[in-house]
# Entry
Amino acid sequence: RAMATSLLRVSPPEALLRPLAVPERLLLGPGPSNVPRRIRAAGARQLLGHMHPEVLQVMDEIKAGIQYAFQTQNRLSLAVSGSGHCAMEAALFNLLEQGDTVLVAINGIWGQRAADIARRLGANVCELLKPPGKYFTLGDIEQGLLQHRPLVLFITHGESSTGVLQPLEGLGELCHRHGCLLLVDAVASLGGAPIFMDQQEIDVLYSGSQKVLNAPPGSAPISFSERARAPGSDTGPTAPSCARGCLTWGLSSLWRRRWVQGKPTTTTTTTTSTEWGQREDTALCSWRCAWAAFDAREKSPSSVMLSPGTVLGSPGAVGLKKARLPTITTVRVPEGYDWKDITAFLMDNHGMEISGGLGPTVGKVLRIGLMGCNSTRGNVERLLGALRDALQRCPRSRL
# Structure
């Protein structure tokens, strides 16, 4: 041992000689959200081998939970190891081939991100643009479908950079009438706003574990319809399909056999601890029916923040109530204040996280997340008190 020690040229980091210390904070930003005790406890359970029958059973239960949360009976419903970005890539890389046309609806950063990924894989990307804070009408979409004749339409259900909730009713039927598949990003909305994959004729839907589902980041639920899976379906003989050949490993035939057929195929070591947590977060979602709780928008905690008489008043960055994302509320930065001063003050003095803008809203808005177990009136009142304190004590320019 002495000889081995004498060969070391890099000293042990002093920080790693101390026990891990993680502060307690209320996470009211756009994600991640706080993790309930039941899900934290699941992640601390002992590992099992990814080929063990108990792990396959948990995967089956996760799949059933995803089908419930998405309101779908799609057989190809699974969890991709990674963030919502990984699910976005898995969806685009399995639906598109080089030269295929995709129409991307962009009213915030996530449409921009999808367009960037599609371009990298060699697709012909056409953009349908709206200013931040606005949503797309069926007329807008139909005009784009007629003009570009895409194989896939990408649209964001909950645009977390701007706080917009995109209406989906009639969109799937419209896309299919024009021989196009509908791909929906629901990372910031699943569990907090109603979404019904089969009824709304959505072909590919994905989300992320760390937002309304209240699990640690690292798992991304995704589901493919039979129309998206099978070439030559009723969308036409040129329809894209994840059966045409995968460019990504995450949805290769081996992974599909593992999730769809439950066969213990050797793919790669799965993130077992993350799967324990995801099993529990889908269980909690099934138990509390979170998406249904927001059907009455006026009763949701987020509506309190934009009601008259609060510290935020009514300076919402999204005008129409029906277009406001209930999980992430965007409000304009009060005049004369720097958003960084406000967010830093809340973190340092109240142990609370909110966020500034992202992409097209940088420097313009504050983004406040109320997701899953964090979405309570008590947390809203605590936040409003902290914001009053911040506006009294943070520097303000009168220019």
The chain has two domains: 26-32+291-393, 37-231+241-285.
